[in-house]
Amino acid sequence: MIEAGTVPPPNTLRLKRMGIDSYQEPVLYTRRDCHVCLSEGFEAQSRVEISLEGRRIVATLNVVDGPLLDESEADLSEAAWRLLRAQPGDTATLRHPPPLESLGHVRAKVYGRRLTPAAFDAVIADVAAGRYSDLQLAAFVTACAGERLDLEETVALTRAMVNAGERMRWSDGLVMDKHSVGGLPGNRTTMLIVPIVAACGLRMPKTSSRAITSPAGTADTMETLAPVELDVPQIRKVVDAAGGCIVWGGAVRLSPADDVLIRVERPLDLDSQGQLVASVLSKKAAAGATHVLIDMPVGPTAKVRSAPAAEVLARQLSLVGEALGMRVRVAHTDGSAPVGRGIGPALEARDVLAVLRHESNAPGDLTQRAVHLAGELLEFGQAAREGQGAALASAVLADGRAWRKFQQICEAQGGMREPPRAPHTLPVAAARSGSVISIDNRRLARVAKLAGAPKSPCAGIDLLVQHGDFVERGQPLFVLHAASPGALAYAAEYARSQPDTIHVVEDA
Amino acid sequence: MIEAGTVPPPNTLRLKRMGIDSYQEPVLYTRRDCHVCLSEGFEAQSRVEISLEGRRIVATLNVVDGPLLDESEADLSEAAWRLLRAQPGDTATLRHPPPLESLGHVRAKVYGRRLTPAAFDAVIADVAAGRYSDLQLAAFVTACAGERLDLEETVALTRAMVNAGERMRWSDGLVMDKHSVGGLPGNRTTMLIVPIVAACGLRMPKTSSRAITSPAGTADTMETLAPVELDVPQIRKVVDAAGGCIVWGGAVRLSPADDVLIRVERPLDLDSQGQLVASVLSKKAAAGATHVLIDMPVGPTAKVRSAPAAEVLARQLSLVGEALGMRVRVAHTDGSAPVGRGIGPALEARDVLAVLRHESNAPGDLTQRAVHLAGELLEFGQAAREGQGAALASAVLADGRAWRKFQQICEAQGGMREPPRAPHTLPVAAARSGSVISIDNRRLARVAKLAGAPKSPCAGIDLLVQHGDFVERGQPLFVLHAASPGALAYAAEYARSQPDTIHVVEDA
C-alpha cells in the first residue's frame, strides 16, 4: 500500500565551506530539517561519523535554521575540514558512529577505579582518532586530575600516548631534548641551545610549537630563518647531517592524543601531575629522546609554585622517564621577566641572531639563560664535566661554533634566509621624564598582535628600555613594526590608549 | 610621536542572525580579524561577556574566516539570542568576563574535597546564570559523579538549585507532584493522573517538558488541547480555580541550573545518584510540592536496573526530600513497552481523550498505568485509604469526574480545543501473514519524526497492532499521519526501507 516514490537519498550531503573555527573540535553543521538528520534521528549535539573517500572522523552536530545552508548541504568546522582532508563540493556520508566502548573505562575512572594499561590504550587510541567529544574529553581529564593517577597508571598513560602516534627512531647513542614547564614569553633559548649542544657533538632533534595565544612560538620564529615544516624522513636527514634541528612539531604526529587533551586541559586549568608528566614525556619518548632536560621555573606566579612541589614533580618525571627508557634532569630557572627585546617572529629571530653572532646589542638575559640551560644539557650528555657545562656553552657561543652550527642546521632544513623587515615602523615615546617602574608584558603582547604578529612575521615590538631605566620625555620606549600602515596605526592607537603599558614615574 | 588617527571603535559589534543551534551552549561567532578580537586578545574558544541593554551573558567564541560575517558583525547561537533577548541589528558590547571565582570549588571537588553549602550556592548561581562553559560544566558533573556526593552535599546541592531559580508558593495544605525516572515513550499518564487526583480534591500543579529527542513530550501533547505556556501568576490562577494544571515547565524558571547541567549530563551518561536526586527534587521543591510520587521503572534496560539499586535511590530521595520539607513515595512500575497507540502530539492526545471519555477504543495499558499511579497519589495524599487508591481512581475515570476536571483545567489554562487532524494519512500494510513478534520503538519514533512530529502536532503514527497479534498479508499495521504529502511520502519510504520495524513472522 505504500506508494511508489523516489527512494530516500542515501546519507550524503554536499560540503560547503563557511569558515567557522570552533577551536580544535570537529563540528558538523547541517540544516535541522535535512533528510539525513530526519532519517537518522540526528539532533543538535549528536555525534556523527563523517566519511569521505575512506577517511572517517566523528564530529558534534550543530543544526542550522535559516538560509546559511540548504537541505542538501553541510558545513564543517576548520578542524573537521583539516582532519577529513575535504574540499568544498565533496560529498560526505553521515552515519551514527560505532559505540565508543572505551568510554566504559572513563566511567570506571570517574567512579574511582584504577585503570589497566589496556584500558589506557583503548581510551587514548580513541582520543587520538578524534572519537571523543570535548565533553567526553573533559570527563576523562577531570577523572584523572589531582592525585587520581598513581605512578603505574601514569606510566601506562604515557606509553599509551606514545603508541597512539608516530615514533622517531635513532641509531645508538644519546638523543638530547629539553622541555620548559609553563614557558615564558619571548623565551627563544631553544634556538640557541640546539646549536650549542649540537656543536659539542651531542645529537638534539628538537620539535617546537607555533604560537597559540602569544605573538610568536619558537616554530614561528625559526620559520623566519629556515623552513620548519619537515616530515620524519626529512628530520632524520637534517639531524644526521647537522646533529640537530629546530622544526615544527605539528607537522609530525608525535603523541597526537596530547594535542587533543591539551585543548580541554587548558581551559579547565586543573592541576594534574600525572597528565603533565604523561604530556611532556610522551612527546619526548615519541621523538626518541634518551636524555630530557626539564626547565622548571618555580615561583608564586609560575606553573610550579614551591620547592616541595617541584621536588615531587621532578621525582615523578624521573621515575616515569626511567620506565620509558629515558633519563630526566630538572633545571630550576628564574621565571619572572620576559627574555630578549623583540616581540614577534622576525624581531625575536633578530635577538637570536645577535646572540649567535656575538653582536654588541645582543640581549644579555637571553644569552645568560641559554648558556645556563645548554650547560646543563652538556653536563647531562657528558660533553662537559659537572659544573663546567656553562663555561663550555659560553665558549662555543663566543668562538662562533654555535653560529656556524646554526647556519648548518638552517641549510639542512631547506636553506637559511634573512628574517623579513617591517616596511612600516613607528616609535612610541615617553609622555614624561622619569624611571621605568613596570612593563606590562600581557599588554605588550597584545600590541604586538594588533600590529600583526605572528601572522605577519615582520610585525611586533622592539623594546628599547628595561625595568629601572631613566627616560627623557619624548624618548622612544619601543618601536612598532607592521606590514601595513593600517595595522601600524591600529596598534599605535591601542598603545596610546594604554599609556601605562610601560609605566614611567617622575623621580621625586 | 603617535600619529593622530581614528580612535579605536569601542568593543561593540552589530548582531546578525545566521541561525546556528549549538544545542544550549551560548556561542559567539565573530571574524577572527574583527577589531574587538584583536584589541581584547580574544581567540577561538575564549570566554566572552556579551552585554546588551543591561543584560549580560557569557559565551564561548568561535571565530570565522571568510565572508559569513564582516569585521563589524557578530552572530550568536540560538541559545545566546534567547538568553540575551537580542534582535538582529542590535549592537552588543563584548568584554572579558569577570573571573569565575566559583571554579575554585569545582577544582576542590575534583581533588576530592567535600564542598560546603556556600560553595554549592556559588557554583550553582554561576551555572544558572550561564557563566560556565560546557567544559567547565562537564568537569563539575564528573567531579560529583559516582558516589562523590554524600547526603549532606546532596541536600546542599539541591537547596542551591532551588535557590537559583523561581519558587512557586502555595497556601497551606498538600501539594501533590509526580516524576518518572527515565520516562517511557508514549507515556502520557500525567494528563490522566492530574485530573483524577484533582477531581478527588487534591492540589496538583504539574509542569512537564517538551520533546527533546522523542516525537512528543507531555507539554507538546497537552498543547494540542489547551495553552501550556503559562507564567507563575497564571499557573496559580489555574490551580486555584481547578485544583491542578498541566503546563510547560520551560516557561517558568524552576531550578534553571538543572536545565543547564542536564545538557552535559545527558551526553556523558554518568551514573550519579546525588545529581539525579538533586535534579528531580530541586524542580519539585521549586514548584512548591509537599508530596512527591516517584514513578521508578526497574528493569535491565531501565535507568534503575536492580531492586537493591532502587532501594538505595528511594532512600536517598526520601532523606533529601525530608531535608527540603517534602515527603517522597516511590512506585515501582513495569518499564518494558510503550504505552497507548498514538505516537505524536495529537495522536497521543486522542488516546488520552479516549481514556477520559471512557471510549471503547481507549488503550487499556494507558488506563491501567494511570489508575495505578493516580491510586498511589490518592493514598499518599490521604484521599483514599491504603490499598484503595486504584479503585477510587478507576471510579473517578469511569463516572466522568476526571473528564469534567480535565475540561475545567483546559478552560482555566486558556480554553480547550480539539487536537488537529492530519490532512494526509497512509496505511502501511503487512508484507506477509503471521504473528507480530516484535515492535521496534526507536524506529517507530523515527518514522513519526520523519512524518513531522512534534513540529507538526498532527503528524505521527497510529499503531493498529500489538505484540502477539496475528495479521493477514495486506492488513494495515499502522497509519502514517502528516501535514503535507511530501512528509507523508518521505516517512512512508523510510518505513518501507525498514520492513522489520513491526516484525511479522509466518506461523510454522
UniProtKB/TrEMBL annotation, chains A, B:
Indicate the segments forming the Pyrimidine nucleoside phosphorylase C-terminal domain, all copies. 435-502
What Gene Ontology molecular function terms does this protein carry?
A: 1,4-alpha-oligoglucan phosphorylase activity; thymidine phosphorylase activity
Q: Name one Pfam family in it.
A: Glycos_trans_3N
Q: What keywords would UniProt list here? A: Glycosyltransferase, Transferase
Which E.C. number(s) belong to this protein?
2.4.2.4
- SUPFAM superfamilies given in the database record: Nucleoside phosphorylase/phosphoribosyltransferase catalytic domain (SSF52418), Nucleoside phosphorylase/phosphoribosyltransferase N-terminal domain (SSF47648), Pyrimidine nucleoside phosphorylase C-terminal domain (SSF54680)
Give the main EC class: transferase
Which reaction(s) does its UniProt entry say it catalyses? thymidine + phosphate = 2-deoxy-alpha-D-ribose 1-phosphate + thymine
Transferase listed as a keyword:
yes
One GO-annotated biological process of the protein: pyrimidine nucleoside metabolic process
Q: Which InterPro entries match?
A: Glycosyl_Trfase_fam3 (IPR000312), Glycosyl_Trfase_fam3_N_dom (IPR017459), Glycosyl_Trfase_fam3_N_dom_sf (IPR036320), Nuc_phospho_transferase (IPR035902), PYNP-like_C_sf (IPR036566), PYNP_C (IPR013102), Pyrmidine_PPase_CS (IPR017872), Thym_Pase_Put (IPR028579)
Keyword Glycosyltransferase listed? The answer is yes
Q: Note the HAMAP family from the entry.
A: Thymid_phosp_2
State what protein this is by name: Putative thymidine phosphorylase
Organism for this UniProt entry: Ramlibacter tataouinensis
